[in-house]
Amino acid sequence: MSGADIFALLPLLIVCAGSVLLLLLIALRRDHRLTALLTGTTLLLALASLVWVAPLLPRAATPLLFLDGYSQFFMLLILLCALLLLPFCYHYLEDQAERAEEFYLLLLLTTLGGQVLVTASHLASLVLGLELMSLALVVMVAYPYQDSYSRALEAAIKYLILSGAASATLLFGAALIYMHSGSLALDSAMTGATGAATPLLLTGILLLLAGVAFKLSLVPFHLWTPDVYQGAPLCTTAVLATLAKAAVAAVLLRLLLLSGWTRYEVLFPALAAIAVASMLAGNLLALLQENLKRLLAFSAIAHFGYLLVILLALQAGSPAPAATESWAFYLCAYLASTLAAFAVLLRLSVQQERVQLDQLRGLFWRRPALAAVMAAAMISLAGIPMSVGFIGKFYIVTLAVEETLWLLLLVVVMASAIGLFFYLRVVLIMSRSPVSAAPGYPRTAAINWLSRLAIGSLGLLIVGLGLYPAPLIELLQML
Amino acid sequence: MLMLLILILFGGGGLAWAAESLRPGSARWVALGAVVLDLLLLAPFIGLSDSKDISIGITHGWLAFEQYPWIPRFGISLLLALDGLSLMLLLLTTLLGVIAVAASWQEISSRAGFYYFNLLWSLAGVVGVFLALDLFLFFFFWEVMLIPMYFLIAIWGHEARRYAALKFVIFTQASGLLMLISIVALALQHAGQSGRISFSYFDLLGSGSRSPWELWLMLGFFIAFVIKLPAFPFHTWLPDAHTQAPTAGSIILAGVLLKTGAYGLLRILVPLFPESLHYFAPWGMTLGVIGIIYTAMMAFAQSDLKRLIAYTSVSHMGFILLGIYAWNPLSLQGAVLQMITHGLSAAALFMLAGAIQHRIHTREMPQMGGLWTLAPRLGAVTLFFALASLGLPGLGNFVAEFLVLVGAFQVSWPFTLVATLGLVLSAVYALILMQKAFHGEPRHQRALLDLDRRETVAMAVMMLGLLWLGLLPQGALDMAARPLLQLGELVALPLDSIAGGAR
């Protein structure tokens, strides 16, 4: 490993250093504000370092980590997610937790896990990143600790056990692949000498994909999602829904592209079944939800079902650059919309968590700016034009039509139509007459300004990219 | 310039919302100003219909044309073009926009800013649909029309408003997605054949008929347009939506939104799938004719005044469907004219129904009766529009329906025979409407406010419009003549020569 390699790893190293510093800080002096500031600085430095290391790419910094445009972009997304959620989490924890400093440590560790995931070029680093992220998230779900039974504790145990089982499945799959091919590196060596699919290899692939599908909340590995989303504190749910999913999605595409498993036609029915089931189950189950966290959980299930259509198109013959572009764009759209929705919920949850649908009632009249951003987020998630979510859906439809995946398209149409019900219902409820007094405004002025900026930019991003996506598309075409 | 028409309405909507919070009661003035401004901006084009003749690709007869780059990666641009057909429909749209604002003047007091925002944004979407000639942009505006209308119905509507609004959105959105699939398929086919992806109308002319999946792609478009039209059996959203919508919502829905379906058939479906006229025309005409008769009978059976008028809307739109698929110069002219005259008469009838509901707080005809003696002006005006609706000669609807029937007769007399029965049925429901609501013993003893000045002026404008179209329709027919001729030529060309197009 040369000096340049180590320098290229700077984004990850900065976050590492930040976590260590945070550990020391928490041990020496508990100060919520300082901790949050340190976290913010770390994330900003990491973002800046992405620019500094750009000239050195692409490069395999270690046998386990490969840095190129793709990993840069997703690291950017992950760091931005964490950074944008920071002011909201600060306010939320300030009001609702006595001790909140460890949250930032866990956030940084999750981010680090995500970064390792998106730069992974070896099954070992994939598992490493995945486990780092998952364990940090498990603790985040239960945090802050309470002596008696709490929903959060139950959710954390659920997540721990199920996540452990999923990781075990993933490792087993990896072991079977190793048995077949003798290599754990994510490249063509993974398919072994002949490249033919033996039952051993295929079982390994399916088990590996099952583990990944668990993290992405795909049917039938989705059962943890609504309960964990609901039980966890709102700031954790936000991280789970955005950061964690984006990192795993990034590595999934990388895995399939580098290993070349998409040429095994046997995988197609399996992936198609998962995609169809996720799209339909996600949208159907969300119809009756009154709790917005659960609604967004099912929305995530559905959206990753849509995302899988890109994989199916890839398998049917789509060129890799087109698939990568669509994948990245759809993830951007999903992240922007979900982040915006959670940001609004976090901002409303002063003194107590406000996530019931009827607590949003009349929001257009009480807090018009927040309601507008929530409306934009819902419209984007529904895939209605004038939002970035629509362009994402358009990408999926284009890829699917190109590969003539007509049945899948039909399911996408049906699922989108079902989705309209509950997304528009949220917007409608926000426009009804308010029955209760507005929740109070957060007190701290400076970070208050920051969270306003974050919400405003998210809202503008959703609508702006929906009307003029060309800049983002040009950026993604370079990946 | 064309972009400005759309932007004024979008901007006006935002301004109205903001203005209302600053000064209550100002939103409606801003809305009125925006729509009137649009109408004035369109006025110069009326004179140009004869002189200007821009050619784009293999088509000609355009009055204005604009193109801006948008998403180059997919070959999508902001392509806007105006010809006589779109001009007629745009004039109708802006005029009915003014009428709609006038109708909501007193009726809407709560959250008026948001109301006018939605009204103007819906109108902006419609103007965009009539101007857009990039298929992606067309789809974009098609969807943009929907959501503001959803809010108009769901927030300011009547008892069953949420159900009606949701049904409306689900029907239209789902069919819109089917249309999107067809659009993308055509664009990708073009990309495969010419090496360059494009969503431009001029590049995709005739491409549908060169596709192996012509029938399915055509159905994708057809279902979307026919749900909007609406045609039997996809019309079930309309009675609920029209009945539950606030007055201005009904005016825009019936007067303008339905016409986008017909416009889509004429402008998009037939030129992109010229061969479909051969094998699909009988089906189209059948659906049109069934629609005419069935919904006329349903109208007769209604007790809710607005629901009756809603069913009559479907019935009249059946004539348009018949006229388009007959594909005869006369029937096409009749179809286009019917779009305008039905727009005017349906808008007026809904405004009157809204006026009645505002006064006696019910739409049930059994609870009305003898309204003529209580509000004679209201009665007389309703009689005028009821007679227009049934096709009284001298008023626009007669000319339109007559042209459709004459044209259709030249193509297929059985269809025409059944459709003519529709004229009898329309007389039945129109007269039933008058008899139940206005004649007989007054049920309400208290006095009713007759039409006030604002309402009378709005009615007068529409009455003049219908009279002009009924007595001197040639002017309107001339405006649409060149585009229709162009369409006829396009369809008659051999398939291979309709290829390529503008930039």
Structure description:
The complex is a heterodimer of chains A (479) and B (503). Chain A has 479 residues and is mainly alpha-helical. Chain A is 75% helix and 0% strand. Mean pLDDT of chain A is 89; it is low at 441-446. By secondary structure, chain B is mainly alpha-helical. In chain B, 74% of the residues lie in helices and 5% in strands. In chain B, strand 2 (59-71) and strand 3 (76-83) form a beta hairpin. The radius of gyration of chain B is 22 Å and the shape is globular. The two termini of chain B are 20 Å apart. Classes of the chains: A mainly alpha (479), B mainly alpha (503).
Individual helix count of chain A: 19
The helicity of chain B comes to over 70%
Helices of chain B, by number, come to 19
Quaternary form: heterodimer
- Largest sheet of chain B, described in full? 3 strands, antiparallel
Kindly report the average pLDDT value of chain A.
Answer: 89
In total, the number of strands of chain B is 3
The share of residues in helices of chain A is: over 70%
The outline of chain B comes out as: globular
Query: Which percent band covers the strand fraction of chain B?
Result: under 5%
Summed up:
The complex is a heterodimer of chains A (about 475) and B (about 500). With about 475 residues, chain A is an all-alpha fold.
Strands, helices and their partners?
The complex is a heterodimer of chains A (479) and B (503).
Chain A: H1 3-8, H2 10-28, H3 32-53, H4 69-96, H5 101-118, H6 123-142, H7 151-181, H8 199-215, H9 224-231, H10 234-259, H11 267-286, H12 292-316, H13 320-348, H14 363-366, H15 368-382, H16 388-402, H17 406-430, H18 445-467, H19 470-477
Chain B: H1 2-22, H2 27-48, E1 54-56, E2 59-71, E3 76-83, H3 84-103, H4 112-131, H5 135-156, H6 161-194, H7 201-204, H8 214-228, H9 237-244, H10 247-272, H11 276-300, H12 305-326, H13 329-360, H14 371-374, H15 376-390, H16 396-411, H17 413-438, H18 453-471, H19 474-492
Antiparallel strand pairs in B: 1-2, 2-3
Helix pairs in contact in B: 1-2, 1-4, 2-3, 2-4, 3-4, 3-10, 3-13, 3-19, 4-5, 4-10, 5-6, 5-10, 6-8, 6-9, 8-10, 9-10, 9-12, 10-12, 10-13, 11-12, 11-17, 12-13, 12-16, 12-17, 13-15, 13-16, 13-18, 13-19, 15-17, 16-17, 16-18
